[in-house]
């Protein structure tokens, strides 16, 4: 571990303790959970690759989204329909290769858990990791409140919420320019807002819409059906929210890579993050 | 720096190794019995949580006529094979009898007319298939609890097993006969009925004529169609694949509340 070296004419990086043990452990358990939940979720979706709005929805009803196969003569093609939009998606969605042969399949084998079609197995993976996700998330929330993690690390500071500051952050992000020096000791405002949306909106929404698909939970809490506009709406929102989480993860990983991949990875594994010194004024 | 480099290499190699292991290993983990036994613990957790935290008598939502699905999807068997069922159907199920036996004081054998003479319940409920779709239908039938009460359960009664007329494929024991089972909590739930009517008419063959089970707080595969016999038992371990139902023997949850 190195500290700041004041004798050197050129300032060096300073290692700071950025992530607590609880944050690191719950982060990686969450990575595992979300990966398994996504892949087993796509397996479950494949059992009925149509989404509806309202209380009911089956083959004869209007679908807001469908990922299906269409057979023309000997060949099979994949069609994804969103509203009135029809997109040919052969090879990826609707029809993709299973053991070398193009077959009807909503999401491709390499995205589902297990790779072969098995709804029962997909459900077993999904519900086990849903429980782990809930327990892990619950522990994280308690820690975040008790240890002051949300208040200290995730709540945007007053100076970060000014229009000028936010505009500058957006411009900096667009140019892939990341904070150095003291400003790198805290998360930037866009980062904080993104994390807060995921932690307090998207992940809880995932759980709530998942539970709203349970006929057992429906009987006890029928208001959840009203909240989401019905079981089939809840299923559709579950799918949309999952897509938003995937979008977040894609951007999150991209930002981790472009803003110092090894430094970021180290901080989420060992806890220590190197603060780069400010660039000397040119 | 050299420490950092070797750590980098270590992290890089672990990342590559982990993802390869993950992608190749998922199917193998799915087929590994020990892994599956661990994953199955979640079913027990779900069942315990729902039975403990949710009120046992809570009613499934009942909808109105305006909410009915225009088309109620026929799923699973659309018409049972076999001469016996064909004969019963040809006779408009006049010769059909529902047998209630097992751990009861008074075994019963009831005709459709007998059942229709008993107090009935009509409910408009949502049917949720394990595949993900839902359909709303109106069901009329005899509360199962009423029948069980008149048969009189013996003290060691734990489960109600439903035997059906339809074959749905080869199960582990070589037969493909559909069957299902419930515990006493769901068996005596007020909305658990043996339905002989659907959407105001006699139960159609596609939906399980002459009689099907409705167990509104669980998924569709629990709602056994084409009922022939109801057996009260203390265990279903010795029946067919031993998991308590046709789909359960193929790996689906016995407690289908989610």
Automatic annotation (TrEMBL), chain A:
Its main location: membrane. GO terms for biological process: respiratory electron transport chain. The chain crosses the membrane at residues 21-45, 125-146, 193-217, 237-258. It is found in: Cell membrane. SUPFAM superfamilies: Transmembrane di-heme cytochromes (SSF81342). GO terms for cellular component: plasma membrane. GO terms for molecular function: electron transfer activity; heme binding. It is a multi-pass membrane protein. Residues 18-271 form the Cytochrome b561 bacterial/Ni-hydrogenase domain. The keyword Transferase does not apply. Keywords: Cell membrane, Membrane, Transmembrane, Transmembrane helix. It comes from the Bacteria. Pfam families: Ni_hydr_CYTB. This is Cytochrome b/b6 domain-containing protein. It comes from Microvirga alba.
UniProtKB/TrEMBL annotation, chain B:
It comes from the Bacteria. CDD domains: bact_SO_family_Moco. Transmembrane segments: none annotated. Gene3D superfamilies: Oxidoreductase, molybdopterin-binding domain. Residues 94-235 form the Oxidoreductase molybdopterin-binding domain. InterPro entries: OxRdtase_Mopterin-bd_dom, OxRdtase_Mopterin-bd_sf. This is Molybdopterin-binding protein. It comes from Microvirga alba.
């Amino acid at each position: 571990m190195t500290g700041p070296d004041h004798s050197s004419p050129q300032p060096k990086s300073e290692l700071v303790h950025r992530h607590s043990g609880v944050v690191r452990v719950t982060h990686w358990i969450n990575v595992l959970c979300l990966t398994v939940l996504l892949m087993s979720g796509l397996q479950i979706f494949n059992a009925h690759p149509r989404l509806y709005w309202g209380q009911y929805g089956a083959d004869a009803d209007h679908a807001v989204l469908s990922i299906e196969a269409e057979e023309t003569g000997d060949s099979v093609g994949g069609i994804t329909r969103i509203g009135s939009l029809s997109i040919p998606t052969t090879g990826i969605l609707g029809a993709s290769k299973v053991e070398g042969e193009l077959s009807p399949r909503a999401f491709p084998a390499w995205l589902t858990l297990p790779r072969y079609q098995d709804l029962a197995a997909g459900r077993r993976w999904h519900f086990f990791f849903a429980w782990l996700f809930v327990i892990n998330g619950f522990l994280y929330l308690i820690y975040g409140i008790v240890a002051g993690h949300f208040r200290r690390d995730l709540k945007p500071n007053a100076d970060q919420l000014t229009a000028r500051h936010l505009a500058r952050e957006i411009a900096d992000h667009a140019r892939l320019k990341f904070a150095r020096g003291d400003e790198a000791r805290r998360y930037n405002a866009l980062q904080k807002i993104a994390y807060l949306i995921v932690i307090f909106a998207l992940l809880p929404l995932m759980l709530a819409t998942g539970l709203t698909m349970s006929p057992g939970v429906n009987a006890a809490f029928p208001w959840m059906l009203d909240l989401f506009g019905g079981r089939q709406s809840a299923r559709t929102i579950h799918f949309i929210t999952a897509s938003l989480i995937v979008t977040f993860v894609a951007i999150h990983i991209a930002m981790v890579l472009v803003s110092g991949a090894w430094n970021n990875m180290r901080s989420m594994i060992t806890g220590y993050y190197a603060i780069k010194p400010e660039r000397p004024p040119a | 720096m050299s420490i950092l480099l070797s750590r980098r290499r270590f992290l890089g190699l672990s990342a590559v190794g982990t993802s390869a292991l993950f992608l190749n290993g998922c199917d193998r983990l799915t087929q590994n019995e020990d892994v599956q036994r661990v994953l199955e613990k979640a079913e027990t957790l779900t069942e315990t949580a729902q039975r403990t935290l949710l009120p046992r008598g809570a009613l499934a939502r009942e909808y109105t006529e305006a909410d009915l699905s225009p088309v109620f999807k026929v799923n699973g068997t659309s018409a049972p094979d076999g001469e016996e069922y064909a004969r019963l159907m040809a006779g408009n199920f006049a010769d059909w009898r529902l047998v209630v036996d097992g751990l009861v004081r008074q075994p019963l054998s009831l005709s459709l007319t007998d059942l229709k003479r008993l107090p009935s319940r009509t409910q408009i409920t949502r049917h949720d298939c394990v595949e993900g779709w839902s359909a709303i239908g109106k069901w009329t039938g005899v509360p199962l609890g009423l029948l069980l009460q008149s048969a009189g359960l013996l003290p060691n009664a734990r489960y109600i097993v439903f035997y059906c007329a339809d074959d749905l494929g080869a199960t582990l024991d070589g037969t493909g006969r559909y069957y299902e089972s419930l515990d006493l909590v769901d068996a005596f739930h007020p909305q658990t009925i043996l339905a002989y009517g659907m959407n105001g008419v006699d139960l159609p063959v596609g939906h399980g004529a002459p009689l099907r089970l409705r167990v509104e707080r669980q998924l569709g595969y629990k709602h056994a169609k084409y009922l022939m016999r109801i057996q009260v038992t203390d265990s279903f371990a010795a029946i067919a694949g031993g998991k308590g139902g046709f789909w359960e023997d193929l790996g689906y949850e016995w407690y289908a509340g989610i």
